Amino acid sequence: MCRAAADWVRRNALVPDIFEYLPCRSAETRSRFPAIAEAACLQAMHLVLPGGTILAGGQALPEILRRTRRYGWAAILFRFPGAGILSRLLYGAFARRRHRISRLFPPV
Question: Does residue 17 contact residue 75 with C-beta atoms inside 8 Å?
Fold first, then answer.
């Protein structure tokens, strides 16, 4: 599921190679981003912004959408009252069930 999500982001990125994808358990991830614990990385996606700010899970979603071609408009939805809470709840529910959800989609 994580690989499919990364592929979706890669296909829809506003600028080619605007995102870099690193596995949670890689030595490169640990050395470049020591502030991201492996356990936290395994629980949610993390987005490191150019200034060094780290966003995880539902917090990262609006920033990722903002950097896509077709879905940048959807980032505006996260500005509505309560959207942050809803985003965290939905992301958490999805993340907890990601292994079951991934079985619904056959490998490519």
Answer: no
| CA 7/CA 2 separation, integer angstroms | 9
Instruction: Write out the two tokens for 107.
Output: 């490998």
Q: Are 66 and 72 in contact (CB under 8 A)?
A: yes
DSSP string, 50-78: TTS-EEEGGGHHHHHHHTBTTTGGGGGGG
Give the span between the Cα atoms of 86 and 71, in whole angstroms: 18
Name 14's Cβ contacts closer than 8 Å, sequence gap at least 6. 67, 68, 69, 72
Chain segment 36-79, per-residue pLDDT in tens: 999 999 888 899 999 999 999 888 888 999 999 988 998 898 88
Tens digit of each residue's pLDDT (9 = 90 or more) over 79-95 = 899 888 888 888 778 77
Tokens in use for 106? 């056959």
Instruction: With 0.70 as the threshold, say if the pTM is over it.
Output: yes
